[in-house]
Design brief:
Order of helices and strands: EHHEHEHEHEEHHHE
Strand content: 15-25%
Mean pLDDT: 96
Low-confidence stretches: none
Helix content: 25-40%
Radius of gyration: 17 Å
Shape: globular
Structural class: alpha/beta
Strand order of the largest sheet: 3-2-1-4-5-7-6
Largest sheet: 7 strands, mixed
Number of strands: 7
Number of helices: 8
Length: about 240
């Protein structure tokens, strides 16, 4: 049997290291595949303090940081959609959907995950990729949609990541044990050198006590599924698939 495939769909380099990361690490360690879809190169982000690079160098530098993080996390493949940072909500929607659908059909993942409706931060790119991922989940399985993007493939589950205490109004559907992933997770975050200021702010300068609370359990909402919904939180993103 082919390894089960997990596909996060995000907007920027470093999103993959902020959100769902412990669950991803556990999946790969257990022999699963992981493939990442990233919409932009994050070229309009800050270059760090002191600056890691010039503004002109940002697209190439952030792409390399992303590739370094992907190697640390064990992603098998990266799909870069080549949209402009901070302008994803202005991208041609059907074109972007076709690119995501093509990636899903090529890689045949059982599980997708992305941001919740508030994007965790309200960033317009996060809101845009949330909407695109939600539409792509069903379109990928519809043979009448984008037939040029490959044979239809319907993933089983689509999750939205939840941050406890910060993500409002979403039912907890998956509670994943991510103990033992901290070292790899932190290494992936630190690969994004240009973004060290925001990373250190969110992860409290990697304070061990904070990391213990942040990195030993992850929460997800089951946004869409082709299976019957569970009565309570599951512990496996691939429930009903294995």
């Amino acid at each position: 049997m082919s390894p089960l495939t997990l596909m996060p769909i995000f907007a920027h380099p470093d999103d993959e290291s902020f959100v769902g990361t412990g669950s991803l690490i556990k999946h790969v360690r257990g022999g699963g595949r992981a493939v990442l879809v990233c919409a932009t190169r994050g070229e309009k982000g800050k270059p760090g303090d002191p600056p890691v690079c010039t503004p002109e160098e940002m697209p190439a530098v952030r792409e390399q940081e992303l590739r370094n993080a992907c190697e640390i996390l064990g992603f098998e493949k990266l799909y870069l959609l080549d949209y402009v940072d901070k302008e994803l909500n202005q991208a041609p929607e059907e074109e972007a959907l076709r690119k995501i659908v093509a990636a899903i059909r090529a890689e045949r993942p059982q599980v997708l995950y992305t941001f919740p409706p508030d994007g965790h931060s309200g960033h317009p790119d996060h809101l845009a990729i949330h909407a695109l991922a939600n539409r792509a989940f069903r379109l990928a399985g519809d043979p009448s949609a984008f037939p040029e993007a490959g044979p239809a493939w319907q993933p089983t589950h689509l999750y939205w990541h939840i941050w406890p205490g910060r993500t409002e109004g979403l039912r907890l559907d998956a509670l994943c044990d991510t103990k033992g992933t901290t070292e790899t997770w932190v290494a992936a975050l630190k690969a994004h050198k240009t973004q060290h200021l925001s990373i250190e702010k969110v992860f409290q300068s990697f304070d061990p006590a904070f990391l213990q609370t942040m990195m030993e359990q992850e929460h997800f909402h089951l946004a869409d599924t082709v299976l019957e919904r569970p009565d309570g939180p599951v512990t496996d993103l691939f429930f009903g698939v294995r």
